[in-house]
Amino acid sequence: MDPEAAGQNRLTELHELEEFRYQAFESTRLYKERMKKMHDKHIVDRDFKPGDMVLLYNSRLRLFPGKLKSGWSGPFRVVQMFASGAVEIESKDGTNKFSVNGQRLKHYLGSADEKGDTVVSHFKEPQYENEE
Q1: Which helix (H) or strand (E) holds 97?
Q2: Per DSSP, which regions of the chain are E strands?
Q3: 3-class SS of residue 102
Q4: Pairwise CA distance, residues 27 & 6, whole Å
Q5: What residues does 57 pair with on adjacent strands?
Q6: C-alpha 56, offset from chain centre
Q7: How many CB atoms lie within 10 A of CB 89?
């Protein structure tokens, strides 16, 4: 048994172990970065301004589920934003005002002035090359 060779062998093993730990750390760091990107991709920016039209999530619907009921009610108009994340909204006709958590709101993408007008589109049958 040569103590010099045993010490050198032990030092080599320690370097290999340190390199393995570094590679595991890097792999974990890269995995966390990828997961953060995937998670952040699905986060919706909820910046509301006074006058925006929003929908309110009805959390009580889970207690009384309906097969085709929507969990969103509204539209409502944003009156004021608070620093705490609360939002003051009012009904479309302006009669009811109340404050809700901003996380329960989403932007209303419909028309703000819906008059019930319907649009009729007429489509023609497609023409194929062999049909003339």
Answers
A1: strand 97-101
A2: 53-57, 72-81, 86-91, 97-101, 105-107
A3: helix
A4: 32
A5: 72
A6: 16
A7: 23
